[in-house]
Amino acid sequence: MASKDPAVRSRRSGTERRAQIADAAERIAREHGLGAVTLRAVAAEIGVGSALVAHHAPSMDAVVAGAFEAIVAAELADLELLRAAAGDPVAAIGALLATLLDGTRSDVTLIWVQAWALGGRNDALAERVRAQTDAWVEFLERIVRDGVARGGFRVEDPAAVAAQLLGMIDGLNAHALVSWRDADARIALMSTAVEAMLGLTPGVLAARR
């Protein structure tokens, strides 16, 4: 926690203070959820008064939106590395389904679910949710288009398939938060559907696991 010494606080520039606020909001969101990112909580996290946070933060809606974006963008960057390491599109899809549906990323799933709910009354958050959803669709679409170009996938509309894939992944992950089926069952269910959507031989994704 940052020092509460006024002499130390005064040495931080506006840019540094805003970065500190953003980092604190992200930590709170990861540990307690987006709903816990409040003016008082952020101030307590960095050891300053609420008035100082209010002075530097454009609004708490924007702070919450920034925390959401930081968390989900970090996950997508991680998955970009996973996709690159997979080598080919079939392996990439299989690896993505495994890591996204095995329950190890439930903390980020919860952030998405909370953002969908809170975004109805937080315009800044809703805008970030739409932008990150688009980024996810574009990420999946690149994989699908690569698979089509290599002759492995038989898809007429990669953009539509990518959007459908994301919706199905989000739905199963939301179900997983209340322990609907186990991870293996969810992965198997999704793999069967994805094989059909991409024109793959039935069972090929299971064979790659």
From TrEMBL:
Entry keywords, A to Z: DNA-binding, Repressor, Transcription, Transcription regulation
Give the protein name, as stated in the record. Answer: TetR family transcriptional regulator C-terminal domain-containing protein
Tell me the InterPro entries matching this sequence.
BetI_C, Homeodomain-like_sf, HTH-type_TetR-like_transc_reg, HTH_TetR, Tet_transcr_reg_TetR-rel_C_sf
Annotated HTH tetR-type domain residues: 15-75
Q: Does the keyword Plastid apply?
A: no
The protein's organism comes out as Microbacterium oleivorans
The UniProt annotation gives the DNA-binding region as 38-57
Which domain of life does this protein belong to?
Bacteria
Report a single Gene Ontology molecular function. Answer: DNA-binding transcription factor activity
